[in-house]
Amino acid sequence: MKLLAFDTATTGCSAALLADGRIVARRAAAMTRGQSEALMPMIEDVLAEAGAGYADLSALAVTVGPGAFTGLRIGLAAARGLALALRIPLAGVTTLEAVAASVPDDARRGRRLLVALDSKRDDLYAQAFGPDLSALSGPAALFPEALADLAAGGGPLLVAGDAAGRAVAALKDRGIPAEASDAPGVPDAAIVARIAADRPLPPAGSPPSPVYLRPPDAVAAKNGGRLRP
Known about the structure:
Layout: E1 2-7, E2 12-19, E3 22-30, H1 35-50, E4 59-63, H2 69-86, E5 90-93, H3 95-101, H4 105-108, E6 112-118, E7 124-129, E8 140-142, H5 147-151, E9 157-160, H6 164-173, E10 179-180, H7 189-197
Helix pairs in contact: 1-2
């Protein structure tokens, strides 16, 4: 099986091809914007390095959020278009579980894991996981001071994600000891590919839905934007 995965949901852009259980090509770059221009050339580079074409793909995987609204839509639109054109399955992986899975086994051993991602606002996107990466909570948008509720339960706590520093500081303010992980703080398409390949793939034609934890910053104007009712 050849599975192409990519991510544009947070502050990066990455693509990776998994073939017969191993990553054979990968590209990644940090970026806060510009994923729409970077993604397709990155995918083309990955396929070229692997000596593969679109027709060789068996499945796709993409991050579904939570993350930046624009970046998330870029990745989902590209994934849905490719899956429809190629008539292959498209799997969705959350950004939180992708970051959690990037933490090495030995670092997670005996510790609960909290993933905290920057929402670009005052709150954080967060989720708690067990040492085996089982979900202990659902994805949530929380203010840092509310992270103590996710951390309740005792035992060592490791925090991963690009907002790990803020989360650790907030937890310590509440008397909860926590350590920041040195694992990558944003999703990696190689991890996304491995997660998707370890699960049953959805039927072709059943695209995943985005994970939105709060409404967009832009809202429709009253009265349709007219100056008067």
